[in-house]
Structures are given as C-alpha cells and as structure tokens.
Amino acid sequence: MLTAVQTGMRLSELVGLDRSAVTIGTGAHIRCFGKGRKERTTPTTRMLNVTLKAWLDEPPVGNGNALFPTVHGGRMSPDAVQYLLAKYVLTASKGCSSLRSKRISPHILRHSAAMELLDAGVDSTVISLWLGHESMRSTQPYLHANLAIKEAALAKIDPFNGQSPGRFRAGDELLAFLDKL
C-alpha cells in the first residue's frame, strides 16, 4: 500500500512489478510499464526506499520474481490488492471514523499521490509525467480540486478596502476596437 500511495502507480503497474524493477540507494526508483507498455521510472521517497530494502532482503516466495507475490509466489491479482486495501481501510476506520463513509480504491491512492505532489508545489507538467499521463488534460482535475491553489490566487488579489468596485465602464479605445469587429 505504501508503494501505491508514494508512487501513484496504477493498479496494473503495481501488480506487474518484478523485484528487479526496484533500485535501492542513491537515485532510488521503481521502473514500471504503464498504459501501452510505456516504460516509466518513478523515484522513491526515503521512507519507501527503506521499506522496499527490508522487503527485498526477505527471500522471494517460491521461484517467482513478483515484487508483491501471493503466498504461492505468483503475481497478485487486482482483486487481491483491492481486498487487502479494503481490509486495511476497515482496520484504519476504527481509529478514523470518517473513513467509514469513503470509498477507498487503489485508484484513490493514485489521486492521493498526485494531490500530495501538487500540495508540495510540484508543477502539474511534472505530475503528469510522474503519473504517466498521455496528456496534460488528465492532470487538470487535480488543479481544480486543490483548494490551496485557489486560496493562493485569492491572496494575490488586491482588496477593495471596503469600497464597492462599481460598474465597469469601457474606455473610448476599447469601444472603438469593438466597433471595428
């Protein structure tokens, strides 16, 4: 779950990871294949790096190379990941009652990663590349959802000092321009 939250990988990317996809240490990252089998490299945080190092120090299950294997060493199915997430959300909801009314899915963890990056001041074009979006348009909903960006925009507006802004009156130059259209 930590890998999902910290990298923003798609569910299909997570279940497709091999142990060899993880690079630990300086320049730590995870290499994955996204939509259209496009290869993408995602840097890992220090916390995830430490956690993955401990995970990889454990002997692999069976003869498999899956980073997150089943008890038999095969790859986890998307349903298995969703089951585990639901199990942990239920456990967490005992300490955080607001989780009971929320629908948490692996894709929501992806959104959470994007919002964390946005809150940290990471440019939306970088977030788009990070998440493996085909187009910048896919990243736009995060900008619309971020209240902090909207508050920052409001803070840049000069207050009217208690005065009404009054009615807009177009100048002669603007009216002449509009007449020519």
Can you lay out the helices and strands and say which pair or pack?
Elements: H1 2-7, H2 11-15, E1 22-23, E2 29-33, E3 39-43, H3 46-57, H4 78-93, H5 106-119, H6 124-131, H7 140-145, H8 147-155, H9 172-180
Antiparallel strand pairs: 1-2, 2-3
Task: Report on this structure.
This protein starts with a helix and ends with a helix. The longest helix is centred in the middle third of the chain and has 16 residues, at 78-93. The relative contact order is 0.11. With 181 residues, the chain is mainly alpha-helical. The protein has 9 helices and 3 strands; from the N terminus they run ααβββααααααα. It is elongated and about 80 Å long.
How would you concisely characterize the structure shown here?
By secondary structure, this protein is mainly α.
Entry keywords:
single chain, 181 residues, mainly alpha, three-stranded antiparallel beta sheet, 9 helices, 7% strand
Query: What percent of residues adopt helix (DSSP H or I)?
Result: 40-55%
Helix count, per DSSP? Answer: 9
Shape: elongated
Q: What fraction strand?
A: 5-15%
- Quaternary organization: single chain
